[in-house]
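Chapter review: from sequence to fold.
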Amino acid sequence: MKNITDSFVSVGHWLPVGSFELNTDILATNPINLSVVLGVLIFFGKGVLNDLLDKRKQRILSTIRNSEDLRRGAIEQLEKARARLRKVEVEADEYRTNGYSEIEREKVNLINATFDSLKQLENFQNETLFFEQQRAIHQVRQQVFQQALQRALGTLNNCLNSELHFRTISANIGILGSVEERTY
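The token string follows.
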């Protein structure tokens, strides 16, 4: 420690001017060299260091501004998305409500249409039944008429002899002849 203080305080060790000598005492020369190097670095490096720090500061501020802009944009997009979601939910509720009422309306319309179709089918069935009854009645009448005619012919053939038969045919021919004369 004595050497360090001696190198700063004691001037007796200084050589006269005009001579140059190397001081090989490491402990005595290092603090001086370091102080000189640091002084030069601070003096000349201050501007460069300030420029580097200013550039770094500007990049950090720019990054922060960009981040803030991106955050604001993300918040706006989130708000827009939330608004669209609310709108879609309202529309979905409306569609659901309208859909249920539309389904009920369609259900009532289908029931009414089915009821009308069943009524028409019943009317058609009744008309068909009436037609079939009329046809059956007509067939029975026709059969009864044919049977009555056959009995009448059988009775006439049994009751008529050939002379009566001949007179009936002659009378019918006479009637037909008079009818022909009237038509011409």
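Two observations follow directly from the output. Residues 1-12 have pLDDT under 50 and may be disordered. The chain has three helices and no strands.
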